[in-house]
Amino acid sequence: MLKSISLNENKIPEGIKISEINFDNPFHDGLHYNPPARGVWNIVHTGMLIPEAHQIYVCAQGCLRGVILTAAEMNRMENMSWVALREKDMWNGEMESRVIEGCSHIVEEMDEHPKCILVYLSCMHLFEGCDFKVIANELKERYPDIDWVDCYMTPTMRKTFEPDVMMKKSLYSPIKKLDENKKFIGLIGCDRATDKSCEIYTLLDKANVKMWEITDCKTYEDYLSLGSASLLISYLPVVNYASMDLTKRLNIPHLPLDLSYDDEEIMSNLKSLAKALDLDETIADEITFETKKEAWESLERAKQTIGNTPIAIDASATPRPIGLALLLVKNGFNVSRIYLDAFGKKEKKAFDELCKLKPDIEIFPTMDPVMLKASDENTESEYLCIGQKSAYFCQSKRFVNIIEGGGMYGFDGIRHLGEMMIDAYLNEKDLKLTISHKGLACESCL
Amino acid sequence: MNQTARIISIYAADTSGVCSALYEFGGMTVIHDASGCNSTYTTHDEPRWYDKKSMMFISGLTEKDAVMGNDDKFINDLIIAANELNPKFIALCASPLPAMIGTDLEAIAYAVENETCIPSFSVKTNGMNSYIYGIQNAFLELAKRFINAKSSSNSNIKSNIESTVIFDNKTSKIKVNILGMTPLDFPKKEYFDSLKSFIEDSGMILNACMGMETSLCEVENLADANVNLIVSSSGKPLGEYLYDKYIIPYVKGVPYGIGFAEKIKKSLILSANKKTCIDATKDLREKGRVAILGESVLSASLASALLLDKGIKADVLETVGEGDFEILKDFDISCDDEKILEDALKNYDTIIGDPLFKPICKGKNFIELPHEAFSGRCFTKNSPNLINTNISII
């Protein structure tokens, strides 16, 4: 059954034991609290990944405020414009023309046309039954030199299409089919660069294949070159909808290589990639011989340094917090808390195993209103945390500052994570300053 | 084109204004919203969020609940949270979608109050107005609900009308309410400290502040004041309400600089004694080649202070699009449109405004004066305190 966490006698939220929680529906989804950890990217950060592109948001003032100031904090206001919807726009039947004329006005005000413009529509357009095709067609007709991309800021739809998922689809929609390059593949779905030391890159080197990553693109042409890829790979779950669209439009096969902390799953993924690159599958064993050893050695060193210090993990750090907890528990770490609001479907196996291995791990939701009382800024905890939200809730200055897996993959990723845990344990961070930075690794004016 | 901007920022919305206004009174404020309003508010519009806890939440409205009109879920969620957190009141406001589908927040508040016995009310918003609108409505609703019945008795009002006490700040001290003070216009605690010191150094007593460094007790005691000091447009409707209902007059203006602070001090004494409302900027404005961009009361106050302390004549270009227009002069401009504003600015040599206006002020002498309601936390650290001190920015 659904669990609703509550406050104990000291007005502190009580976690729920992992062994007592329902995997499919762990928590009551009531009012939402928002902890002050700002590292996770939003649709503005992601849209800024397209070089030489511009963003226009068409929505109400309240919705505009967050996205405009995201750009302002990134020092990217030159790439950001807006059209505000007013009350009268809801009733006057001119929703489409408001978008078209607003975007046209903005383009006319520019010294130079951008190569690509992302137009973000909102829940209001959706509920008005706004004709998106009319808007897209008219803008393309007026400004054929610009790639117009329809994007959506529709959080009301988050139960069916999360804004991040929709954004990832829009992120690649200007890509057009180019002549196929057999020695070129694309990594999609990652906002942050992937470690070049990971086994994916090692396999690509063996196959003499180059990889497209959006974070490497300096020009719009670099970005468009994804259209010549012979294969698309991904390792973050948020990309599924985008990969389906790309595969359908460009006829490029997609190979998911889910980020995992499980020995067997990592090996299986690497073998799949080797096969797709026309390499002998045994090469995956060869290249991981050393990295696997290094991974376990790194964890061993981390264990020696960290000892029995309690560890907290949150879902902003990795899409597989349960898998990561299982890895750490198996290697002798004292994982005590996990902060998440739902379990990813692919975590079921790790969840079941973790329930048996360490049934008393406490699970906390991050959005439940009582979590407002979870942190006490006057008391530092002894926790070593992986992720900003767990660091905030535990009020720990010892934390691994990553989001979405931190660009770490495979056994090399585990090695790297072990090193980051040691560094986090030995070198305290300024918690407030670090987690206040919006969009981890993005430029900030703060 | 109206409602469109190529490069400048946008002001905080009414929903953030409501939350900002009610932050320190011990209530639970909930924006009926899908997602986004909460993180926008707590990231960009609320500098207190990390260090001072307050019950600010969103409903997490979904497409299904919106389409099906499932208000019961919202009501149940409010009751669950209220029973756990025990707030002093519950305030509800709407983001654009509930406003669009006509959600009856007043009825929801009524249902929640019936169930929890916690005072509950809705504050009018739709996510499409500025923060000023939200703060104004929030302060009004809060005051109407919580002003102490004893203070608001007929005898008290009568005594206010018939009062013959002469406030000289020696034998009888004036009690002052500060109205319209939120971090969206005054982002640092030091602004409150300066205002409080100004009032106390003037021989007066700070009776209540709406709404920084305050509590619900201060709301209950609002009607005990002799005069209100309205320091932003956000405090004006409450000031008018307190005058209409309790005959407490108000003075409009922020005591920037030295000369204008002195003018406000005199105005407060005069207002308290004569029971008349005073715009402290009224006779202190002359058309000039300097433009001050921003909220009307703050900008008019700065223009007055510059004239008194430095002999600088400055026009106000009110850029929020909402607020106190009565304080503006014929030569001032109210304009929330980027293109029109850019054209208007060509008539000035020096611009004083938030740094995010800078891109449309090319070729001008630009003096940065950060405004939290426009640029959020981007430049808070550079925000100068001009209250009752020498103005050194120009």
Q: How would you sum up this structure in a few lines?
A:
The complex is a heterodimer of chains A (446) and B (394). Chain A is an alpha/beta fold and 446 residues long.
* Average residue pLDDT of chain B: 93
Instruction: Give the H and E element order of chain B.
Output: EHEHEHHEHHEHHEHEHEHEHEEHEEHEEH
Structural class of chain A: alpha/beta
Number of domains of chain B: 3
Gyration radius of chain B (Cα, Å) is 21 Å
The major sheet of chain A is characterized as: 6 strands, mixed
Instruction: Output the number of helix runs of chain B.
Output: 15
Kindly report the spatial arrangement of strands forming the biggest sheet of chain B. Answer: 7-6-8-9-10
Shape of chain B: globular
Question: Using only CA atoms, what is the Rg of chain A?
Answer: 23 Å
Structural class of chain B: alpha/beta
Average of per-residue pLDDT values of chain A: 94
Please tell me the total number of domains of chain A: 3
Notes on the protein architecture:
The complex is a heterodimer of chains A (446) and B (394). Chain A has three domains: 173 residues, no CATH class; 121 residues, 3-Layer(aba) Sandwich (Rossmann fold), CATH 3.40.50.1980; 96 residues, Rossmann fold. Helices cover 39% and strands 14% of the residues of chain A. Chain A contains 17 helices and 14 strands. A six-stranded mixed β-sheet of chain A has the order 1-12-11-10-13-14, sandwiched between helices. A four-stranded parallel β-sheet of chain A has the order 3-2-4-5, with helices on both faces. Chain A has a four-stranded parallel β-sheet with strand order 7-6-8-9, sandwiched between helices. In chain A, helix 4 runs parallel beside helix 6, helix 7 packs parallel to helix 10 and helix 13 packs parallel to helix 14. The two termini of chain A are 44 Å apart. The mean pLDDT of chain A is 94. The mean pLDDT of chain B is 93. The longest helix of chain B has 16 residues. The two termini of chain B are 33 Å apart. Chain B has three domains: 133 residues, Nitrogenase molybdenum iron protein domain (Rossmann fold), CATH 3.40.50; 111 residues, 3-Layer(aba) Sandwich (Rossmann fold); 93 residues, 3-Layer(aba) Sandwich (Rossmann fold), CATH 3.40.50.1980. With 394 residues, chain B is an alpha/beta fold. Chain B contains 15 helices and 15 strands. In chain B, strands 7-6-8-9-10 form a five-stranded parallel β-sheet, sandwiched between helices. The interface between A and B is large, with 66 and 69 residues. Strand 3 of chain A pairs antiparallel with strand 1 of chain B, so a sheet runs across the interface.
